[in-house]
């Protein structure tokens, strides 16, 4: 009798589902003691204390370990995996994006319980910035980022890092989608990925003045992405209408900042005809019929999309004095004077030999070849 009763009571005990459930105070990973774990913020895994590992080891928990995170303050729910069991007792450390998703602050109470989620087959994302379009292969980047995630939940806006830049991604749809969880497991499964237009993206067919993947409307171009034809051959000043721009600049200037006469480095006074020649030279460069010397030098303001690299070099005609000095310098030789040889000349050698033959006192050698000691 007792044996039958004990056997009857043991059957429902073995079939009863074992579940881990506990309460912890949540804190961001940035407040975690020890070495910096900034990379853990770009994943979906949490840090639990060692006591949680002891409890889980006594339960028949399927792998990978998945947990439901529920806020006691506002009942917000999300899901995630576990990275390490190194947190202080009574604490759990979460990535920053999970804290923002749950809308909780440091020290808030969370209910963490184990759960089972189906393997994901399809996920649709919405990039939170048009900068995501700059990534050449977004699917490969996300596939690499999923190594730090265990779950994907509808409505979560997680973050991942690529090329030292952080991108936000919102989960719009998952399949299979359970009505009570709206989350899937992304560990050891093949997931089909689809993307919605990024936040702030405008279709090129309806908007032509944005910067990301859309046509840019500039002077000389139409609203489409087809470039404008090249301008006719001519000088750059003519192609941009520099004469009109310079006239507008001169008219807008009211007072000359720099005034006075010119001076030469030689100290001579500048002749009026030289000043007139400089004015004429400026007219030739600018292409104006008249020049206002009282105008301030103003920056050249070109329409958007045009560049100006200056005028062709036109040398200034030298004055009469400068031409005279140049001719004198050309006539004067660059090198003048007599040369000297380092070797002794032949005449000097003959003079020394004749003096020795006449009985003169020969010159003592500076360095004797032999020294005799008595």
UniProtKB/TrEMBL annotation:
GO terms for molecular function: polyubiquitin modification-dependent protein binding; ubiquitin binding. Keywords: Ubl conjugation pathway. Residues 20-118, 120-198 form the Ubiquitin fusion degradation protein UFD1 N-terminal subdomain domain. The keyword Nucleotidyltransferase does not apply. Gene3D superfamilies: 3.10.330.10, Ubiquitin fusion degradation protein UFD1, N-terminal domain. GO terms for cellular component: Doa10p ubiquitin ligase complex; Hrd1p ubiquitin ligase ERAD-L complex; nucleus; replisome; RQC complex; VCP-NPL4-UFD1 AAA ATPase complex. Residues 254-276, 314-374 are annotated as: Disordered. GO terms for biological process: cytoplasm protein quality control by the ubiquitin-proteasome system; DNA replication termination; ERAD pathway; mitochondria-associated ubiquitin-dependent protein catabolic process; nonfunctional rRNA decay; positive regulation of protein localization to nucleus; protein localization to vacuole; retrograde protein transport, ER to cytosol. The keyword Cell membrane does not apply. Belongs to the UFD1 family. PANTHER family: UBIQUITIN FUSION DEGRADATON PROTEIN 1, UBIQUITIN RECOGNITION FACTOR IN ER-ASSOCIATED DEGRADATION PROTEIN 1. This is YALI0E26235p.
């Amino acid at each position: 009798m007792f044996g039958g009763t004990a056997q009857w009571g043991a059957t429902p005990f073995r079939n009863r589902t074992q579940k881990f459930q506990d309460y912890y105070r949540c804190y961001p990973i940035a407040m975690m003691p020890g070495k910096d774990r900034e990379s853990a913020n770009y994943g979906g895994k949490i840090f639990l204390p060692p006591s949680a590992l002891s409890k889980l080891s006594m339960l028949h928990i399927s792998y990978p370990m998945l947990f439901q995170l529920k806020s006691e303050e506002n009942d917000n729910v999300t899901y995630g995996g576990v990275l390490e069991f190194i947190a202080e007792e009574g604490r759990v450390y979460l990535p920053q994006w999970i804290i923002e998703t749950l809308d909780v602050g440091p020290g808030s109470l969370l209910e963490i319980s184990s759960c089972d989620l189906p393997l994901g087959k399809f996920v649709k994302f919405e990039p939170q910035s048009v900068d995501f379009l700059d990534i050449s292969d977004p699917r490969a980047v996300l596939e690499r980022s999923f190594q730090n995630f265990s779950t994907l939940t509808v409505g979560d806006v997680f973050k991942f890092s690529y090329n030292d830049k952080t991108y936000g991604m919102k989960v719009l749809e998952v399949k299979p989608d359970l009505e009570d969880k709206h989350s899937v497991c992304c560990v050891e499964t093949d997931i089909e990925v689809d993307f919605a237009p990024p936040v702030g993206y405008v279709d090129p067919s309806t908007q032509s003045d944005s910067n990301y993947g859309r046509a840019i409307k500039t002077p000389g171009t139409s609203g489409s992405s087809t470039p404008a034809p090249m301008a006719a051959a001519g000088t750059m000043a003519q192609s941009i209408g520099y004469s009109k721009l310079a006239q507008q600049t001169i008219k807008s200037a009211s007072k000359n900042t720099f005034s006075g006469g010119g001076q030469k480095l030689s100290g001579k006074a500048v002749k009026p005809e030289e000043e007139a020649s400089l004015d004429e030279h400026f007219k030739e460069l600018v292409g104006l019929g008249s020049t206002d010397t009282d105008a301030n030098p103003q920056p050249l303001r070109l329409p958007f999309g045009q560049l100006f690299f200056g005028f062709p070099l036109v040398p200034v005609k030298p004055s009469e004095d400068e031409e005279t000095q140049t001719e004198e310098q050309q006539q004067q030789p660059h090198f003048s004077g007599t040369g000297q040889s380092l070797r002794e000349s032949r005449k000097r050698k003959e003079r020394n030999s004749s003096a020795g033959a006449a009985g003169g006192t020969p010159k003592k050698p500076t360095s004797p070849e032999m020294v005799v000691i008595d």
